[in-house]
Amino acid sequence: MADIAYLRVSSTDQDTDRQLADSGLEFLRVFSDKASGKDASRPGLTDLFKAVRPGDTVHVHSIDRLARNLRDLCDIVQRLTSDGVSVRFHKENLTFRPDQEDPFAKMMLHVIGACAEFERAMIRGRQAEGIAKAKAKGIYKGRPASIDAAQVVELLDSGLGATEVAQRLGISRQSVYRLAKQGATA
């Protein structure tokens, strides 16, 4: 029976130092992600699922650190408890155990999870409004291209296929097609 920590921040310039720092626990393993909580496709979370064993407890600073999507949140907690693993949210003081159903804790998980999902939607809405206003003023040009369209066209012209070009440049095949089209019209 091990205590395991899961930490998450939304971007690479943030750090997880404050999460679970004052828990007083020594964790056998710590899994973390520097990625959005919008979905459950995160390497640290995937590794956590592979590592936990029945009897373990996964400690999370707060519900919104595990997920900002209510369905994913419920699925993650259900998956862990079905595998015999307890989940403890420190900020909300909620614990989910495989051998015990707590209707109040379940209701609180849904309410707080819905609030986290709502908060993410509001942030995205404000971000979109800001970008639209900046574009209208000619201030926002988007992120600079990391791959030159001419480079993609050159690689394709050398006889490489779209899949190989994508692998070499570390981009998707769809990006190869889009950049090739841009390069052809330039």
From TrEMBL:
Transmembrane segments: none annotated. The keyword Phosphoprotein does not apply. SUPFAM superfamilies: Homeodomain-like (SSF46689), Resolvase-like (SSF53041). Keywords: DNA integration, DNA recombination, DNA-binding. The active site is at residue 10. It comes from the Bacteria. The keyword DNA-binding applies. InterPro entries: Homeodomain-like_sf, Recombinase_CS, Resolv_N, Resolvase-like_N_sf, Resolvase_HTH_dom, SSR_resolvase. Residues 2-138 form the Resolvase/invertase-type recombinase catalytic domain. Belongs to the site-specific recombinase resolvase family. This is Recombinase family protein. It comes from Pseudomonas triclosanedens. The lineage of its organism: Bacteria, Pseudomonadati, Pseudomonadota, Gammaproteobacteria, Pseudomonadales.
